[in-house]
Specification:
Helices cover 43% and strands 19% of the residues. The protein has 464 residues and is α/β, with parallel strands linked by helices. A seven-stranded parallel beta sheet has the order 10-13-14-9-8-15-16, with helices on both faces. Strands 5-4-3-6-7 form a five-stranded parallel beta sheet, with helices on both faces. Strand 1 and strand 2 form a beta hairpin. Helix 2 runs antiparallel to helix 4, helix 4 packs parallel to helix 5 and helix 13 runs parallel beside helix 14. The protein is globular and about 65 Å long.
Length: 464
């Protein structure tokens, strides 16, 4: 057995070495390309996915058994367009900035070969966006797809490369492993110059153990706080849209609604009018929890399934037209499993007496799972919004928007469009922002001598 394992390891290393060599050769050729040529290549990646959005979406649903084809189509198109719009015209090669005040001139240079671990929950747009970021920075990229989405992720890369061939881009700038295994992934991330890990925490932790610079993500569990002054007619449809998008598999999707007690019944009625089924019987709640969680862990057979499927699994009879299930939680944090991330169209509901109490409920749930990721707030009170921003350890607070489709960047907010959302040290990540091309370039800084700079006197320095 030991000999067999050794043979597998040697074969895997040779297999990965071939990918690395092809990537290095492609990147060397890519160094000759101008900024304009680079941008044409990046645009072509986005356009290839945009043009094939529906086909790839349907393929992803068929292969993974998760999500909604129409939602994936919309996501494929939206991400392709938003990310290209964000990258368009930005300098990423050669001199990118001259600061006359500081005397610093910045020169962008590639990191080298990027390895990207991609998830089955976003098997199309994550390979696309990571390729766009890598190539914008002058790098080559090798993708290792989730074993449940090899076919659709591979097809995505094939479609992109076919379009890149038409504009004479270097071959093998974008590669995807045709043999998926733990050994291949381990050897790939140990051989690349930088690792991007999007997916489960086991893969993210493996990336950080690779010995190479790694950019990972944290667990999602978006807490949605509805302030006392919120516009309920706008907020409720946005919350539901976020919870049910792609059957709830996005890490940025709303997971819990934290509501003011004096408006609780009013808001729950609004949810009902917008297609929510409210779990009121204790036995229904227990059945729901037992379906979603096994030994405290999200049941993989419930991930990305429709609200009708979840209800049927739990033995709950729901009327036609129901879009989301809402269950009132028995307590925040570890006291109730509903406080965890629920990757299906189910929301947990909480009541608070004061906004500060609502923030504490969110904090307790995030401490259990999702710390560092995102919080959604529906409010017109800047003081309350900024209080939550100061108190909660998350990288994004999304205000008066559908968090599921806005935390990863939007035309209507300033967050960088991406599919890889860093969660900072709170989520054991190296970045606390949305990943984009700037994380995949090195910068050389020329520091000119500034003879006229002022040197502070002792009086100025020490306030004497």
């Amino acid at each position: 057995m030991e000999l067999k394992n050794n043979i597998v390891e040697i074969d895997s290393k040779l297999y990965i070495d071939e990918y690395i060599e092809r990537a290095k050769k492609a990147r060397k050729e890519y160094e000759k390309f101008s900024q304009e040529q680079i941008d044409q290549i990046v645009m072509t990646i986005a356009k290839a996915v945009d043009d094939n959005a529906e086909f790839l979406a349907e393929m992803a649903v068929e292969e993974t058994g998760m999500g909604v084809a129409a939602d994936k189509t919309a996501k494929n198109k939206a991400k392709a367009r938003m990310i290209w719009n964000s990258l368009k015209g930005k300098k990423s090669k050669g001199i990118i900035e001259r600061d006359e005040v500081t005397g610093i001139t910045k020169i962008a240079k590639p990191v080298g070969v990027a390895a990207a671990i991609t998830p089955c929950t976003n098997p199309i747009v994550t390979p696309m966006s990571n390729s766009m970021f890598a190539l914008k920075g002058g790098n080559a990229i090798i993708i290792t797809p989730h074993h449940k989405s090899i076919r659709c992720s591979t097809k995505t890369v094939e479609i992109i490369n076919a379009e890149l061939d038409k504009i004479n881009a270097p071959k093998n700038l974008i590669q995807i492993l045709d043999q998926q295994s733990r050994e291949n992934t381990t050897n790939l991330i140990a051989s690349a110059d930088v690792v991007i890990a999007t997916g489960g925490m086991s893969m993210v932790k493996a990336a950080y153990r690779s010995g190479k610079p790694a950019l990972g993500v944290g667990a999602g569990n978006v807490q949605c706080i509805v302030d006392t002054d919120a516009d309920i007619e706008t907020a409720v449809p946005q919350i539901i849209a976020g919870r049910i998008f792609d059957n709830g598999i996005l890490c940025s999707g709303e997971q819990s609604v934290i509501l003011p007690e004096f408006r609780y019944e009013e808001i729950m009625e609004a949810f009902k009018k917008n297609g929510a089924y409210i779990v009121s019987k204790p036995e229904e709640k227990e059945a729901l929890i037992s379906v979603m969680f096994i030994d405290g862990v999200m049941n993989r057979h419930a991930v990305g399934q429709s609200v009708q499927t979840i209800a049927a699994l739990a033995g709950i009879k729901i009327p036609e037209g129901i879009r989301v299930i809402i269950a009132e939680s028995g307590g925040s944090g570890a006291s109730d499993l509903l406080a965890k991330e629920k990757m299906c169209p189910v929301l947990a509901a909480y009541k608070y007496k004061t906004f500060e109490e609502g923030v504490e409920i969110a904090r307790a749930n995030l401490e259990l799972e999702g710390k560092g990721h995102s919080v959604s707030i529906h409010s017109n009170n800047t003081e309350n919004i900024e209080y939550a921003g100061k108190e909660l350890c998350v990288s994004r607070l999304v205000i008066n928007q559908t968090c599921a489709t806005s935390a990863g960047g939007s035309y209507f907010n300033g967050l960088a469009p991406t599919n890889t959302l860093g969660c900072g040290s709170w989520g054991n990540n190296s970045i606390s922002e949305n990943l984009d091309y700037k994380h995949l370039i090195n910068i050389s800084r020329i520091a000119y001598f500034m003879k006229d700079n002022h040197v502070p006197t002792d009086e100025e320095l020490w306030n004497l």
